[in-house]
Each structure stands twice: as C-alpha cells, then as structure tokens.
C-alpha cells in the first residue's frame, strides 16, 4: 500500500468530519497520517496498521473528550443564553403587568410580563422565573 493511499484516507476522514462534527473522524485522520509516515519510512503494512490503530485509539480515548468539551459551543445540560437568565435579578425599566413590560437583566433590556399578574413599577427589583420565547416571566425580587 503506497503512502498516498493513507493520505487519501486521511483526507476522506477530514471531509467526513466536517459534515459529522463528531470529533472522532479527525482523530482517525491523524492516525492515517501516522500510518502514511510509517509507509514513507518503508515499514511493513502490519506496522502501518499498528501505528494507525495506536494513534487513533489513544487520541479517541484521551484527546476526544477534551476536544468535545472545549469546542462544542452548546453542551447538553448547559443552559442556553435565555435559559441562563432564569434566577437572575434585574429591575423594571417600563411598568410590568400580566401582559407586557420591560426589564433590564445582565445589562440588556428584555420584554417581560409579571408571572403572578402583579403590577411592577419602574425601578422595582425583579427575578426571572421563566423564559417564554424572547419574553421573560418575572416576579418581585423583594
């Protein structure tokens, strides 16, 4: 097997990784490049396959979890941007009623409504209880 075949396998794995974003295929591509190097050095096929397996498995076991943790932007279990607002405190910018109003939370102004129907006046402290689309459901933070 010529070293170019290992390189072609690596390229195919990189292309597949672009479409799958599993963070596994790219590691096997690195293993294929290691096997290509072994072939270029004149090592036998069994050794090339061994290099491919050892590099790929070690990267999959030790590097893949780190890649996934650091490169995946929205982990399961981590609140989305709006979900992270739940429990945060802010204050009323424009009177909040059961239907409408404006609050400032984390320096941003959000549409809001009172969770319990209470009327909250401008300047009143509020706590975000729930998020419905782009509207925050708030209650008095006192």
From TrEMBL:
Signal peptide: none annotated. It comes from the Bacteria. The chain crosses the membrane at residues 7-39, 45-67. It is found in: Membrane. SUPFAM superfamilies: NfeD domain-like. One of its GO terms (cellular component) is plasma membrane. Keywords: Membrane, Transmembrane, Transmembrane helix. Residues 84-139 form the NfeD-like C-terminal domain. It is a multi-pass membrane protein. This is NfeD-like C-terminal domain-containing protein. It comes from Neomoorella thermoacetica.
């Amino acid at each position: 097997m010529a070293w170019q075949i290992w390189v072609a396998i690596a390229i195919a794995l990189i292309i597949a990784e672009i479409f799958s974003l599993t963070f596994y295929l790219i590691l096997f591509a690195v293993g294929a490049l290691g096997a290509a190097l072994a072939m270029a050095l004149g090592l036998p096929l069994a050794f090339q396959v061994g290099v491919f397996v050892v590099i790929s498995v070690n990267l999959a076991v030790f590097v893949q979890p780190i890649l996934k943790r650091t490169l995946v932007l929205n982990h399961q279990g981590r609140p989305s941007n709006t979900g992270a607002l739940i429990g945060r405190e802010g204050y009323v910018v424009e009177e909040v009623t059961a239907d409408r109003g404006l609050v400032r939370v984390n320096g941003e102004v959000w549409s809001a409504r009172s969770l319990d129907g209470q009327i909250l006046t401008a300047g009143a402290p509020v706590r975000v209880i729930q998020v419905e689309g782009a509207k925050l459901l708030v209650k008095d933070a006192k």
